[in-house]
Design brief:
The complex is a heterodimer of chains A (146) and B (300). Helices cover 70% and strands 5% of the residues of chain A. In chain A, helix 2 packs antiparallel against helix 3, helix 3 crosses helix 5 and helix 3 crosses helix 6. In chain A, 29% of the residues are buried. By secondary structure, chain B is of the alpha+beta class. Helices cover 49% and strands 11% of the residues of chain B. Chain B has ten helices and seven strands. In chain B, the strands form two sheets. In chain B, strands 5-4-3-6-7 form a five-stranded mixed sheet, covered by helices on one side. In chain B, helix 4 packs parallel to helix 8. The chains are: A mainly alpha (146), B alpha+beta (300).
Chain lengths: 146, 300
């Protein structure tokens, strides 16, 4: 990993960590009324407090990884934070896939009903998911160097 | 049996029976004693202008008006029976305790008016004097709801201009006296055909007919109503059954969409879920890329 890549990684994951931390705080606040929404983002569900704790942890892991980012232990923290996002977002996506197939009163959903299952709102973890994939580049880079 | 005690017992029983009969001799359709409160519902108000002033009429306004009118009717009836003011007060308090005036009839008429006005005026706000209703249902609930909207009923607050309300029964009979005692004469055999309204925009002559769908009322509702309300031959079990059906009909009019309640109303088509289609495409593309990358990795 060259210096430019390291600097980019540091800044990128610092921003991502700050955003994750902000989302975590928002989810934590949303546990009081039980749900909250902002545009196409929605925070609700019985696991909301746990998801808030996970997001807060994600934020802390990302932020603690930015100093000396190229060092393998620091990189591991960012990898761990990304995996946490993948698990929570993966579950949310899987719930949508599973819910999109059966219809309300029929075995299979209509095309409109199927696609409507994937419509907004989305949980904050799903917004973070694509941005967390950047870590794959750094993992592959690390692997190449070895 | 002690012969001396029998007359006293009989007098007490007779007095209790008379007391019960005096309060129930004419059923008040404004409410159903013992009925549960309606579930949570959201009904938009009817918005009209009355001589230039915008007026919002909610189902609660209609219910309160209907309740008030029925309490007044009952009071007058009890006065004719030579009851004292204190006795009347007690009876009214007992009979109308918890009553909201939101019954199947008032809620149906409100929904029909709401639908008819939106169909005939669209986004425009109708002038009260431009509204005409033709009702086929001779009940106080329907009549007083429509009287409140048109401003034609007694004691409707802040009326500056009046619409029109006509009652023509399904057999063609026109009822001109819309007072409760007069309506009672027509409330005998009322089937689904009476759950019908015509809303007219007087300035243009446009009409919209609202007919309640078959299936909104539970099976046997009309027969049971006649048995309970008209013939008064129902057993306590049948009265309980009617109360449950009454609640179900009221709740349907308060909570179900127009296309579930009224004939000829099309369910609006859901817009194509563009957001869902975009997300699904991204998901499929992502999974595809992941598979390609993993196969490439293995090939190396």
């Amino acid at each position: 990993m060259n210096e430019t890549e390291e600097n980019f990684g540091s800044i990128y994951f610092a921003v991502l960590g700050a955003v994750a931390l902000a989302f975590g705080v928002a989810e934590l606040i949303a546990t009081v009324p039980g749900e909250a929404s902002w545009g196409i983002m929605e925070m609700s569900g019985i696991f909301l407090p746990w998801r808030a704790i996970i997001l807060l942890s994600v934020g802390f892991f990302y932020l603690s990884s930015v100093k000396n980012f190229a060092e393998v232990h620091q990189l591991a923290k960012a990898v761990m934070a990304s995996i946490m996002i993948w698990i929570v977002a993966g579950i949310a996506i899987w719930a949508r896939i599973a819910g999109s197939i059966p219809g309300e009163e029929t075995w299979f959903n209509s095309l409109e009903g199927f696609l409507a299952s994937y419509a907004p709102p989305y949980c904050p973890e799903m917004f973070l998911l694509p941005f967390s994939l950047v870590i794959v580049y750094y993992v592959l880079k690390e692997k190449e160097e070895k | 049996m002690e012969s001396g005690k029998l007359p006293l017992k009989a007098v007490v029983i007779a007095a209790l029976v008379l007391l019960a009969l005096s309060t129930a001799v004419i059923s008040v359709d404004a409410h159903m004693p013992g009925a549960k409160a309606p579930p949570e519902f959201e009904l938009s108000p009817i918005v009209i202008t009355d001589d230039g002033t915008e007026v919002e009429i909610t189902i609660e306004d209609v219910g309160n008006y209907h309740n008030g009118r029925m309490a007044e009717f009952k009071t007058n009836m009890l006065k004719k029976q030579n009851k004292t003011d204190a006795e009347i007060g007690k009876i009214i308090e007992k009979e109308f305790a918890g009553a909201t005036g939101i019954c199947p009839c008032s809620s149906c008429a409100f929904r029909a008016a709401l639908l008819g006005i939106s169909e005939l005026w669209g986004d425009e706000i109708p002038e009260r004097a431009d509204i005409k209703f033709i009702s086929r249902r001779p009940t106080p609930g329907v009549t007083q709801c429509l009287q409140y909207i048109t401003g034609t009923g007694p004691k409707v607050p802040d009326v500056k201009s009046k619409g029109e309300l006509q009652m023509i029964l399904p057999d063609g009979t026109e009822v001109t006296d819309l007072s409760v005692p007069s309506l009672k004469k027509y409330m005998v055999d009322m089937d689904l055909s009476t759950w019908n309204f015509v809303i007219i925009r007087k300035s243009t002559g446009d009409e919209f007919e609202v007919q309640v769908k078959e299936g909104v009322h539970p099976e046997g509702f009309f027969e049971l109503r006649k048995k309970v309300k008209v013939d008064k031959m129902a057993t306590p079990e049948e009265i309980d059954e009617f109360r449950v059906q009454w609640e179900a009909v009221r709740d349907a009019f308060l909570t179900q969409p127009d296309w579930e309640l009224f004939e000829g109303v099309e369910e609006p088509e859901e817009p194509f879920p563009v957001g869902g289609a975009i997300f699904f495409s991204i998901l499929v593309t992502g999974v595809g890329l992941l598979l390609v990358l993993s196969f490439r990795g293995k090939a190396r």
